[in-house]
Amino acid sequence: MKIAVSRSIVDQVFLGDCRELLAALPDQSVDLIVSSPPYNLGKEYESKVALDRYIEEQVPVLAECARVLAPTGSIFWQVGAFADRGTLIPLDIRFFPVLESVGLIPRNRIVWARQHGLHARKKFSCRHETVLWFTKGDEYTFNLDSIRVP
Fold first, then answer.
1. How many domains does the chain have?
2. Of 21, 81, 90, 142, which sits with the fewest C-beta atoms within 10 Å of its C-beta?
3. What is the domain range of residue 55?
4. What number is the average pLDDT over the span 114-140?
């Protein structure tokens, strides 16, 4: 899994294996983490594994994210859905308790609706993804006016 980390006013971006990058960062040194981890779909860059194993593999990554977040830090974790033999499980439902278990506080569940996506025959087509916004503490930055839509 890849992760991009923006750090302080310098806004450095580091690309690489997130487990290695996070391990190299000092405690409470990151203000913002934005990630869209692989969805466990079996694409060319990932092997599809059982859902429980996939979630278990994310737990140490999220624990490291929590460790490196500053007390005023935020994490935005974008997830889709896990599909297996016709069933569809929204991953945000599974990640919500994981993020809480590593000490992060839920702020928003953001739904990104889009026009494109795979066409389904026996169910509604998936035309959205979810972004979970969690913070390290109660003092965090949120600039509503910067993103407000008139």
1. 1
2. 142
3. 4-147
4. 83
